[in-house]
Design goal:
The protein is of the alpha+beta class and 138 residues long. The chain has five helices and three strands. The N and C termini lie far apart (45 Å). The relative contact order is 0.13.
């Protein structure tokens, strides 16, 4: 039986909660993910983490994903990039990491220009304002 090489943790956050409460929930998710990884003998410092935030009415569905081993290599290879809503959710949630890292986290490897082009196309298709990706798209 193959060992798992990724883990996912999801929480639903009320958008109307104070910012401090929402940030605390996200911090708790990071702590809990790290503790679970240690529990299964995975070094949390050698894992790639990716956030995804999906907006629904007055809620946000926040997902923290951890990748190691084969899943990490596949993610960084650029062989299976995200598309559609998954791409925009990942890009928006990880924008503070910078365009190079976000391209990797979205499965584009080192193809920063390809990532930016696909993000623009997808945002237009989904009728999302491009200014919501201003940190990632020049």
């Amino acid at each position: 039986m193959a060992k798992p090489t990724q883990a996912h943790l999801e929480r639903i956050i009320n958008k109307n909660d104070p910012l401090k409460v929402r940030q605390q929930t996200l911090s708790q998710m990071q702590y809990y993910m790290g503790a679970k990884l240690v529990e299964v003998r995975i070094d949390p410092q050698k894992v790639i983490y990716r956030w995804s935030i999906k907006n629904q009415a007055d809620q946000q569905i926040c997902t923290l994903s951890a990748f190691w081993g084969e899943s990490q290599r596949k993610l960084l290879s650029g062989s299976e990039p995200l598309t559609g809503e998954e791409l925009t959710n990942c890009a928006r949630a990880n924008a503070s990491a910078g365009v190079e890292m976000v391209a990797k986290l979205c499965g584009f490897g080192s193809d920063k220009e390809g990532f930016q082009t696909k993000l623009k196309e997808t945002a237009r298709e989904l009728e999302l304002p491009l200014d919501s990706f201003k940190k990632l798209i020049p």
